[in-house]
Design goal:
single chain, about 20% strand, Rossmann fold, 2 domains, 10 strands, alpha/beta, 10 helices, five-stranded parallel beta sheet
């Protein structure tokens, strides 16, 4: 008999909506807790439509034209690496959360600020003045997804900083297999992980109404808010914007007896 404390997700089929190293790690962590992960990437990333603007910004970054650069996702780090971007010694880097910070360090970059409480653009804004000793104006490069809300850029401009906001990549939807769609619609999946607003949109568009017996688990409060705005039901919300927190939230749901019977 499986020990619920060591394998609390035993028998759970969990849809993991991203592939690559992130998806592989999440799948491994789910298996360690007894779950059966279904890795079905629902989004992918493509080059920006304005490559000259990105190239020009990265050239200025290497030349030391910016005091700060803000990074809001691990995907942006991939873009920096693929362009072999050089950060001038005097330029400091702010990461929106621990996952992004870890990706920066793994890629060989440094990190000067990570929000201590809220791992989000809003959290970074709340701690910005203290972290930068209230210096205004600063020259800031913000790199973002094409569909990202300009919360950080606009917030920094309101404070009085000189901000250059550049699209680093585009987010595109990826159709999952017919079998995955059929299993989700039939309620044969215990939980669907929602890791961003982009994933939430694909979940809605590709699956429609999620069966009540399937838990919809969001990676943090902001993603939960985005998902609800798109009309998705949200059952589980991770306290932090990290894969570890998301899995722990599922574990808590399982231990609380909310595991649906399929």
């Amino acid at each position: 008999m499986t020990n619920r404390l060591t394998k609390p997700l035993a028998g759970w089929r969990v849809l993991v909506p991203r592939g690559g190293p992130w998806g592989d790690q999440v799948a491994a962590n789910l298996r360690a807790r007894g779950a059966h992960p279904i890795v079905a990437p629902m989004i992918n990333f493509a080059a920006t439509d304005d490559a000259p603007a990105l190239d020009a910004a990265l050239t200025r970054l290497a030349a030391g034209d910016f005091d700060w650069m803000t990074i809001t996702s691990a995907t942006t780090v991939d873009v920096l690496s693929s362009h072999r971007a050089v950060v001038a010694p005097g330029t400091r880097i702010a990461a929106v959360g621990e996952t992004t910070a870890a990706a920066l360090i793994a890629a060989g970059y440094h990190v000067d600020i990570v929000p201590s409480e809220d791992n989000s653009a809003r959290g970074l804004l709340e701690e910005w003045e203290t972290a930068t000793a209230g210096v205004i104006p600063l020259r800031v490069l913000t790199l973002r997804s094409e569909i990202a809300k300009p919360l950080l850029s606009e917030g920094l401009r309101r404070i009085g900083h000189d901000v250059e906001s550049v699209v680093a990549y585009r987010t595109i939807g990826v159709p999952v297999s017919d079998q995955v769609v059929a299993d989700v619609k039939a309620g044969l999946v215990h939980a669907v992980l929602v890791t961003s607003g982009s994933v939430a949109r694909q979940v809605r568009d590709q699956f429609g109404d999620i069966p009540e017996r399937t838990l919809v688990a969001c990676i943090g409060p902001q993603t939960a808010k985005d998902a609800r705005a798109l009309g998705l039901r949200v059952d589980v919300v991770a306290s932090e914007r990290s894969a570890e927190s998301l899995i722990e939230a599922l574990v808590d749901a399982a231990l609380a007896g909310t595991a649906p019977a399929l």
